[in-house]
């Protein structure tokens, strides 16, 4: 479903919240992706002229679901026709923006911005001079007044790399639903999935705090912290200079006598496929190769010839045997 269709579903419901069919369509759309609830709440707030929550605030998702469920059952007040028309045109313009650019943004009356990518990658230069690089399928948001008195960004989902300009008096803060990250000036990567957040530091020093328990870890260059919301714990790992954590940004995969089991994991993450090693004896086989922005088929062909192994690819499944 494209973004213009998404917006149309929400707008039609906001124009006629008592319509049972529109309620059902909205509910089905929200259930497709947890992030759609945030999008709906943002659009509803803008529709009503309410200020949006600050980027650093904690969102009560469970509570919002309960409120929404009541809304979709109980009658709701209907906006006046004049307001409907004005906002209809405003959101129609927003829909055009979504179609015109792979990275889209919402501007709310509360001075709040949301950026998101679909299948492509993108980058944003922030007002303080810091650079934000977004991987595909990533959604972030921050206040329009970012950089003046605070520098806070929230990652709703996906993966982003931050190259932060140093400001001793204004810390740079990155929030995910489970983890708070604070720096002054550094470069680091944050990957947020359903139940796991990974923070990797390329330069400088980063403080990562697990919100549920208050546990905190200090990361220095080459270190990665994995914070699992189901385990309520923090695991750390130190990498050598040769790793592929930032391959999505550099578009280059580097394997320096890397075991095939690790190669498979890197390929799966980079190309968004499932990689299975059917022959366990191949798991420790080493690969020495550099792949500069090659297609998956090209990489697999080189691996076949270099390691003299069999590889088949069917749709999104790669099998090594």
Shape descriptor reads: globular
Q: Tell me the total number of β-strands.
A: 19
Beta strand %: 25-35%
What oligomeric state do the depicted chains represent?
Answer: single chain
* Largest sheet entry: 14 strands, mixed
| CATH architecture name of the largest domain | Sandwich
End-to-end distance? 37 Å
* Order of secondary-structure elements: HHHHHEEEEEEEEEEEEEEHEHEEHEE
Low-confidence stretches: 50-59, 75-102
> What is the fold-level CATH name, i.e. the topology of the largest domain?
Jelly Rolls
**Average pLDDT for all residues:** 78
Radius of gyration: 22 Å
What structural class results from the helix and strand content?
Answer: alpha+beta
Helical run tally: 8
State the helicity in percent bands: 25-40%
Task: Please give the domain count.
Answer: 3
Per CATH, the class of the largest domain reads: Mainly Beta
Architecture blueprint of SSEs:
Layout: H1 3-15, H2 20-32, H3 35-48, H4 61-73, H5 81-100, E1 104-107, E2 112-116, E3 122-125, E4 131-134, E5 139-143, E6 151-163, E7 172-175, E8 179-183, E9 187-192, E10 196-203, E11 206-210, E12 216-219, E13 223-228, E14 233-238, H6 247-250, E15 252-259, H7 260-271, E16 274-277, E17 286-292, H8 296-307, E18 311-314, E19 317-320
Parallel strand pairs: 6-7, 16-19
Antiparallel strand pairs: 1-2, 2-5, 3-4, 4-6, 5-6, 6-9, 7-8, 8-11, 9-10, 10-13, 11-12, 13-14, 15-17, 18-19
């Amino acid at each position: 479903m494209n973004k213009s269709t998404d917006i149309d579903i929400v707008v039609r419901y906001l124009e006629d919240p008592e319509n049972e069919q529109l309620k059902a369509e909205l509910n089905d759309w929200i259930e497709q992706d947890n992030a759609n609830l945030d999008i709906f709440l943002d659009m509803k707030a803008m529709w009503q002229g309410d200020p949006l929550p600050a980027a650093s605030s904690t969102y009560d998702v469970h509570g919002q679901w309960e409120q929404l469920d009541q809304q979709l059952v109980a009658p709701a007040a209907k906006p006046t026709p004049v307001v409907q028309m004005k906002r209809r045109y405003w959101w129609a313009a927003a829909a055009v923006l979504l179609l015109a650019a792979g990275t889209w943004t919402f501007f709310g009356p509360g001075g709040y911005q949301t950026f998101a990518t679909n299948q492509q990658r993108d980058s944003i230069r922030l007002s303080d001079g810091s650079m934000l690089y977004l991987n595909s399928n990533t959604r972030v948001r921050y206040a329009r007044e970012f950089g003046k008195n605070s520098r806070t960004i929230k990652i709703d989902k996906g993966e982003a790399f931050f190259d932060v300009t140093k400001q001793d008096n204004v810390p740079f803060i990155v929030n995910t639903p489970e983890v708070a990250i604070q720096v002054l000036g550094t470069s680091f990567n944050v990957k947020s999935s359903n139940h796991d957040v990974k923070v990797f530091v390329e330069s400088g020093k980063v403080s990562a705090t697990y919100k549920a328990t208050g546990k905190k870890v200090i990361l220095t260059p080459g270190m990665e912290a994995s914070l699992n919301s189901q385990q309520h714990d923090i695991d750390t790992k130190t990498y050598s200079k040769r790793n592929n954590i930032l391959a999505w940004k550099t578009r280059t995969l580097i394997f320096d006598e890397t075991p095939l089991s690790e190669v498979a994991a890197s390929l799966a993450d980079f190309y968004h496929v499932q990689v299975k090693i059917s022959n366990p004896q191949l798991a420790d086989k080493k690969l020495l190769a550099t792949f500069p922005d090659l297609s998956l088929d090209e990489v697999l062909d080189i691996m076949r010839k270099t390691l003299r192994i069999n590889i088949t690819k069917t749709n999104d499944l790669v099998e090594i045997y």
